[in-house]
Design a protein that fits this description.
Layout lengths: L32 E6 L2 E6 L2 E2 L13 H12 L11 H13 L3 H10 L14 H22 L16 H12 L3 H14 L2 H8 L5 H8 L1 H10 L3 H25 L2
Antiparallel strand pairs: 1-2, 2-3
Helix pairs in contact: 2-6, 6-7, 6-10, 7-8, 8-10
């Protein structure tokens, strides 16, 4: 660790690598994508064929709104479908193919990185960064205590922090309360931000997408303010924030009928 800005191993490091791979089709093999009811929920139809996952599982979605949004992603594709332009589909496939059958491993992976949650590693300097982190992160630590009963310890100086057992227990209970769809979004956001607290705050509607992005990328924004903007860094930041926004929309659509 550093007593300036820090880079920690966050709770989602490596979690996104296990997502199902969306392979581009040689060509678009359907004319119309639509959504409709199916047994147990809602389906996406490519012409008259129900969309299935890369593992060939039935894709039964819990809300008509989510099914409709996936259908819009597929309808918007050109002659060669581009998986990178279908973030909601990727999350839905991950929920069915990876999180559903591997829920225990997903939870264990998230909990194994609790000690590295970035909001527990504030900088001591420069003063402007330290102040920004305090302003964004202390309310989140307070929320974790009040809403999740998680008494987070904060690192000081260069030494890593070991969270008390009560924190792991509280986060474990919070994850158990999520269904597989919401756990998928939490895994996604934790992997991007290096913070399970931020991911849970989004899932619990304590923060919106803009709030998560602001709290997650304080160090990057501070460095760009000090040293100037870098095109590659800006691109990485934009892609990360687009993925957080997709996860936030995924959560929103789950709340709609």
């Amino acid at each position: 660790m550093s007593n300036t800005s820090t880079t920690t191993t966050g709770p989602g490091d490596g979690a996104r690598a296990a997502e199902p791979t969306l392979k581009p089709s040689a060509k678009r093999a359907y004319t119309t994508a639509s959504a409709g009811p199916t047994e147990g929920g809602h389906a996406v139809m490519l012409d008259r064929r129900p969309l299935s996952t890369p593992a060939r599982a039935a894709l039964v979605l819990p809300s008509a709104a989510l099914a409709g949004a996936l259908a819009e992603e597929w309808q918007a594709q050109g002659p060669r479908p581009a998986p990178a332009t279908m973030p909601l589909t990727r999350l839905a496939f991950t929920a069915v193919d990876r999180v559903g059958p591997g829920r225990d491993q997903v939870e264990a992976s998230l909990l194994s990185h609790v000690d590295g949650d970035q909001i527990c590693y504030p900088a001591e300097r420069p003063a402007a960064l330290a102040a920004a982190q305090t302003a964004h992160w202390q309310p989140l630590r307070d929320w974790a205590m009040q809403a999740l009963d998680a008494p987070l310890a904060v690192a000081g100086g260069v030494m890593p922090v070991a969270q008390p057992p009560a924190v792991g227990q509280a986060f474990g209970a919070a994850l158990k309360r999520l269904d597989g769809w919401r756990l998928t979004a939490v895994q996604e956001v934790a992997g991007i931000t290096g913070s399970l607290v931020l991911a849970l705050a989004l899932a619990h509607r304590h923060l919106d997408v803009a709030g998560v992005c602001a709290a997650a990328h304080l160090d990057e924004r501070h460095q760009m303010a000090d040293w100037g903007e870098d095109a590659e860094a800006l691109d990485r930041l934009a892609r990360a924030e687009a993925d957080i926004a997709a996860a936030g929309r995924f959560l929103d659509l789950l709340e709609e009928p």
